[in-house]
Amino acid sequence: MLPESCVLAVVAVLVVVGAAGPVPALGVVALAGAAGATLAGVRLSRLTLGPDAPPVDPAVGRLARRRATRPRRAAALLHAAVVIAGLTAAVLPLASAGYRPAAAAAGLAGTAALLGAGLLSLPYRPRPPARGWLRHLLDGAAPGVCLTLVGWLLLPYAGVAGPARLAVAVALGVLAVGTLTVLTGVQSNTGEARTRAGAALTLLALVLLAALPAGPAAGRAALLAVPPLVVGVLLIAAGMRRVVRAEGEASRRTTPVWPRTVVPAVAVVLTEVHELQAGHLPDQATVLLALAAVPALVARELLGGAAERSTTPDALRVPDAPPSPTAPVTGDGGVPTGRAELLRALAARPEPAVGALLVVDLHLTELPGVAVRDDVAAEAVRRARAMTGDDDEVFDLPGSGLAVVTAAGPVLAYALGTHLLTALGRPYEVSGAVLRSRASVGLAELAHGRPEDLLRQADLARRRAAQLGRDRVEWYDAYLEEQLVRRLDLERELPGAVARGELDLVYQPVLALTDRSPVGAEALLRWRSPVLGTVFPAELLPVAEDLDIVGELGAWVLDRACRQLADWSVGGRRLWMSINVTTRELTSPDFVPRTAAVLEAYGVAPDQLVVEVAEPRVAAELPTVVARLAGLRSMGIRTALDDFRAEHASLAQLRRLPIDLLKVGPEVVAASSDPHRPLLDVVVTVADRLGVEVVAEELESAHQVDGALRAGCHYGQGYELARPATAERVEAYLEEFPSTPR
């Protein structure tokens, strides 16, 4: 980019001027370090606090929130490290000659600590196996020894103790070989790799500055620290930009590895030639360092040969025995069949794996025979094979669908998933019948674990796609796994919760807004699970509907609420009790007679019970809902419409529903504060004409309570008026009001 290019050009000019003599070398270090650190600091501060930072949804799980904030936290720590590195370079000309090494060492320590914390905060990458770590270590051992030897020979002799000189030489060798390895590794084009390379170069420059002699002997040697310092801080900023903006995908091109061998060897040769020309003979440490590279080279060759033999493709090996009975199982058209073959193919892909695994589930809308299902599966595999590229692999998974392993990146893999949905959604003409299928596709990136983990992740994403309605593609992430595991726990624990006595009711009083006296209460379901904690209806009811146990839960709520209402009515108190029912409960044939039987069993007057149904779910079965509500009203039971949205269609639908109470939420109440949109006033006016009383719910502030009262609402409920509580607490609250006439 232009600013970085300008800074590098200015630094190059400063180095040339410093080498020529007009500007002191430490002045060049200060100016160049300040320029590079300023630009890098601006870049990193924008990444940390800029408007392009994506907001973190507070509703997501803790693990997902931590993952989302890791890059920003890393950018903040690296920003502080860059600032300290720049300040270290800037204060060197100002410090006296005796304190310069100490100042450089202090800056090195602070920068190293912050760089380490920042690099540890980078997003996790899959760890290679132990054999891969050993091989990488040996890859860098011999070049590291060579570069340590170069540092030992080039560091000044006078006034420097041998152990200190050796420690500095080892530090320089490790940092230099680490920089070479990162810059020439298989993932050198990722943001994380660039950030690590920049950190290594920055530390290399600060080590050089700390190793300079205290006196004027430093001279032009200080200029050697300028290029790694400036390039290092700029690489840190560029790498973090890729990390934060998700641009750091691994490059699929082959990166050259020869610099790791050639650069250290050439450096050793040139340094030895320089030392011989200067008349310096090799000392004991020089000979030992030169010999230390030999064992590393031998071990590297031995391990490399074993690795090559273990990774030789089966097709290139000379068979010395009959073919194994575990040879790949293929179906029609040579497509591998079964999960075992899929796992074997995933394990055989070279490291680092790039691409995605797609698991496709086929859900036939009809229920054909086994032979017809096999024909449909074969046709689905043929269509998938026609949609994929030559390098992609398709696997038939009997009984569940199919899988595709592709080397494409995330965007192209998602596009392939959508194309598969289109191709697999076309009708199937088999055995004289026309069948239709609704597919669900789950994706997982190949770089995220072992084959078994990848298949599990793709399966979880596929299941999520099926839960959301099918005909969709879903990516795996950690938050998704949290949701699915939570869902599985709910499905496992919820059946039998009634029998185990784990259900409970809390009650929220409903007050008359004119005098704040209680007129009723709403029964709210809670599941006190010893395994999952307290589960609320918003999470509980969808699972109950899928398990088809809503009726069982609803019957328990009705019985418990009516029993509690009978206890509160002993002293002549007249309260109503509201219970929430789903449309599935309400439209069941036995709902009305069952409700009447419970009221009779507890001796509760019908007008003391209020049956609430949510307005957004009424439209799907409006005629049946109207009939059930009319049946309840004919018995004297009051009915209510909850979650009223006050839209045009809702107002039109309101005329058809036989209800006594209309419950409006905070979005309707809040709109009444706008003089140009008196929405609540309109709702109250329409309700008055229909003979319906309005209850304002979820009132959270005195301002909302006053607005509801001014608009003409008779009743209200919410935290501002009374919080949900257990039956005992609500009973103590009711004792403050001697009589409740309604």
Give structural notes.
- InterPro entries: Cyclic-di-GMP_PDE-like, EAL_dom, EAL_sf, GGDEF_dom, Nucleotide_cyclase, Rev_trsase/Diguanyl_cyclase.
- The chain crosses the membrane at residues 75-96, 102-124, 136-154, 166-186, 198-215, 221-244.
- Residues 309-335 are annotated as: Disordered.
- GO terms for molecular function: cyclic-guanylate-specific phosphodiesterase activity.
- Residues 487-738 form the EAL domain.
- The chain contains 25 helices and 16 strands.
- The protein is elongated.
- The protein has 3 domains: 2-306, no CATH class; 332-490, Alpha-Beta Plaits (2-Layer Sandwich); 496-734, Alpha-Beta Barrel (TIM Barrel).
- Helix content is 55%, strand content 13%.
- The protein has an 8-stranded mixed beta barrel with strand order 8-9-11-12-13-14-15-16, surrounded by 5 helices.
- The relative contact order is 0.06.
- It has 742 residues and is of the alpha/beta class.
Q: Largest sheet, order of strands side by side?
A: 8-9-11-12-13-14-15-16
- Biggest sheet descriptor: 8 strands, mixed, barrel
Task: Indicate the radius of gyration in whole angstroms.
Answer: 37 Å
The helicity comes to 40-55%
Provide mean pLDDT, rounded.
77
Kindly report the oligomeric state of this protein. Answer: single chain
> By helix and strand content, what is the structural category?
alpha/beta
- Which outline best applies? elongated
Number of helices: 25
Number of strands: 16
> Which runs of at least 5 residues are low in confidence (pLDDT < 50)?
51-64, 126-133, 247-255, 304-328
**Number of structural domains:** 3
Question: How much of the residues is beta strand, in percent?
Answer: 5-15%
